[in-house]
Write a structure and sequence with these properties.
Blueprint: E1 30-35, E2 45-48, H1 53-57, H2 71-79, E3 84-89, E4 96-103, E5 106-110, E6 117-118, E7 122-126, E8 130-134, E9 138-139, E10 154-156, E11 161-167, E12 178-184, E13 194-199, E14 202-206, E15 212-213, E16 217-220, E17 226-229, E18 233-234, E19 249-251, E20 258-266, E21 272-281, H3 296-303, E22 307-311, H4 316-325, E23 329-330, H5 342-349, E24 361-363, H6 370-383, E25 386-391, H7 397-407, E26 414-418, E27 421-424, E28 431-433, H8 437-448, E29 476-477, H9 486-491, E30 494-499, E31 505-507, H10 523-543, H11 548-568, H12 578-581, E32 586-594, E33 597-604
Parallel strand pairs: 1-3, 1-24, 5-7, 14-16, 24-25, 25-26, 26-30
Antiparallel strand pairs: 2-3, 4-11, 4-12, 6-9, 7-8, 8-10, 12-22, 13-20, 13-23, 15-18, 16-17, 17-19, 20-21, 27-28, 27-29, 30-31, 32-33
Helix pairs in contact: 2-8, 5-6, 10-11
């Protein structure tokens, strides 16, 4: 979106944002962050709630990974109060994602020395019993000894599955001699996952009399017709007539040329469980009994949120041996790689430059890279949303101030926080140190939840014991002998966390990184201003391309509704200097600058907050 008015038919400030969110803290309580995680799709937005957080991204990383173990802990803090949080997962360039390719094999039965030509991927059975797979085409001779796994033309064979790993963003393809390739699309490189292909049909060969058949047994009649058993039974002495089949049999048709793919994972106790299962076919035109596509690639696209599949196009007749020989195979070779670079982080955050993605409460979640933070502030400024970050809690108070001052970071949309405490680690035990930017987002959401009509409480300061208490236990200071200079922290615009009289940690200020002595230095004032902008864009888009009279009336009445609602909610109040500013809590001016250009100006007097309370004995 442009930042200045041009001749294009566009509204300036923000595009239309969907405001139909009604859960949790309300339509404004939508967080946005970038984190490191063990799993989760890469390079796209993941919508996370408190209920889905660990299922989508895994539990927080252990402190042994270093600084980036903080991200998912901040996310847990924010999700406790937000409607939801839009999350982007960042990985390093050397991250690898596993895939499993299935070779096309031909089962040739027992090995023979009778001048048989064996081709690559032919499988034979030898004494043992054991199986070998041909790796070099050759022809046997009568004097050849039975081969072993060490023989020149053969390798040991257990399954047609092969593991591979690819970098994120690599375009996958499947080569000749392969049936299909299966790969995760949720960015999980875990070795706990495995895949198993289960044949649905069992080929029993030629039909036999007085034999026991069970459901999905397939037989071949003397006429060449193939039948599938649909009711378990013991056959009689007379071969079934294809023209008048008994109820136990049906003609083997395309809808039986399918197999089942099962995916397994392991829980925290290392116990396997079924993750998902799909019945698939190999004909692009195949459809199930409900009329839905049954083709393997389409099934994965439509039904799986975790895996994708590339199929080679081989016919059913060419893949049956591979399916029958496929055993449960673990995904291997995946890794999350090393530490993401500054550019990796910035690229991930840049996804939030797309203003159609709700992101009202951005938070750094323990990232202390000044270049990344500056990029986040640029996004927040452009989008007119709040951004919260931490000064590293492991720094001493003096060093925290020095770091903040040297960073040069400033913006009325940004807030910096300092939380030098260790607290109980509910995931791994012991004590762990992490910042509080996620907790600030939760504090904002608590205020938003205090609705007046349909107006969220954006004017409630995200500080103090009612909204700003951190959800942590067993907190101990990292620097018990060092006092926080509150005046110096205010001058640097750093908001400290302090212990309350009950021992709980509380966010104790709400100043933004704005270094002038006006109202814009307070976070709640900027949140009120952002909310008005958000509602203005909503009204402006409703009136876009309307004629003059409707535009004039619509803008005036629409903005009056927004600002009057904020007066009712007590977000706006009468000016504190009526001799200069008058008595109205807001003013609105609508001017037609040109035939296609309307200018709407508004002024508002925000409510205050009991940030400083003075007693005079």
């Amino acid at each position: 979106m442009k930042d200045a008015i041009t001749n294009a038919a566009e509204n300036v400030i923000l595009p239309l944002i969907d405001n139909t969110y009604t859960t949790g803290g309300g339509p404004y309580s939508i967080g946005a962050t970038v984190v490191r995680a063990d799993k989760g799709r890469v390079g796209e937005v993941i919508r996370v709630t408190n209920a889905t957080r660990e299922a989508l991204l895994g539990k927080p990383l252990p402190k042994s990974v270093g600084q980036h173990m903080e991200g998912l802990r901040h996310l847990a803090d924010a999700c406790a109060e937000c409607s939801y949080v839009n999350v982007v997962r960042v990985v390093a360039d050397d991250a690898k994602f596993p895939s499993i390719s299935i070779k096309q094999i031909v089962d040739r039965g027992a090995w023979s020395d009778a001048s048989v030509t064996y081709k690559v991927n032919d499988v034979v059975t030898i004494a043992g019993p054991a199986k070998l797979i041909c790796v070099t085409e050759h022809t046997t001779a009568s004097e050849d000894p039975e081969p072993t796994a060490e023989s020149p033309n053969w390798d040991a064979f257990t399954t047609p599955a092969e593991n591979d790993a690819h970098a994120y963003g690599t375009e996958l393809s499947i080569g000749d001699g392969y049936v299909c390739q299966i790969y995760p699309i949720d960015g999980d490189p875990s070795l706990n996952r495995s895949v198993k292909i289960v044949p649905i049909v069992t080929d029993k060969g030629a039909w036999a009399g007085t034999a026991s058949y069970i459901v999905n047994d397939m037989v071949t009649l003397s006429t060449g017709e193939k039948l599938i058993c649909v009711i378990a039974h013991e056959s009689g002495s007379t071969e079934p007539d294809p023209e008048a089949l008994p109820i136990h049999w049906k003609v083997f048709g395309p809808n039986y040329k399918r197999f089942k793919i099962e995916f397994y994972d392991k829980n925290s106790l290392n116990e396997p469980y079924l993750l998902e299962s799909h019945v698939v076919g190999v004909d692009p035109e195949d459809r199930d009994d409900m009329g839905r596509p049954a083709f393997i690639e389409t099934v994965f696209e439509d039904q799986s949120t975790r895996f994708g599949c590339i199929y080679s196009g081989l016919t059913w007749e060419n893949i049956q041996d591979s399916i029958a020989a496929m055993t449960e195979t673990q995904f291997a070779g995946g890794t999350n790689g090393g530490d993401p670079t500054s550019e990796n982080w910035k690229d991930a955050w840049d996804i939030f430059r797309d203003e159609t993605i709700p992101a009202f409460l951005m938070f750094a979640a323990g990232n202390y890279d000044e270049n990344v933070l500056a990029n986040c502030i640029e996004i927040a400024n452009k989008r007119h949303v709040s951004f919260f970050y931490d000064v590293s809690p492991v720094l001493s108070p003096d060093n925290a101030l020095s770091w903040q001052k040297s960073s040069g970071l400033s913006s009325r949309q940004a807030g910096a926080y300092y939380c030098p405490y260790a607290a109980n680690d509910i995931w791994y035990g012991g004590k762990t140190v992490w910042g509080c930017s996620g907790s600030v987002v939760a504090a904002c959401a608590k205020g938003d939840a205090m609705f007046t009509g349909d107006i969220p409480g954006v004017h409630y300061s995200p500080a103090g014991p009612i909204r700003g208490t951190l959800r942590r236990t067993g907190a101990v200071p990292l620097y018990p002998g060092q006092r926080i200079d509150r005046d110096a922290f205010y001058d640097a615009r750093v908001n400290p966390v302090i212990p309350s009289s009950s021992g709980q940690l509380v966010i104790d200020d709400a100043v933004a990184l704005h270094f002038q002595q006006n109202y814009s230095r307070f976070i709640w004032v900027n949140r009120i201003g952002n909310y008005i902008i958000y509602r203005f864009v909503e009204k402006a888009n409703q009136l876009k391309h309307q004629p003059d009279r409707l535009t004039q009336q619509g803008l005036q009445s629409g903005m009056n509704d927004v600002l009057a609602g904020l007066v009712t909610s007590k977000a706006l109040s009468a000016p504190r200097n009526p001799d200069v500013d008058g008595n109205a809590p807001y003013t609105i001016s609508v001017t037609q600058v040109a035939i296609d250009h309307w200018l709407v100006e508004w002024a508002f007097c925000p409510t205050g907050s009991a940030r400083r309370i003075v007693g005079q004995p």
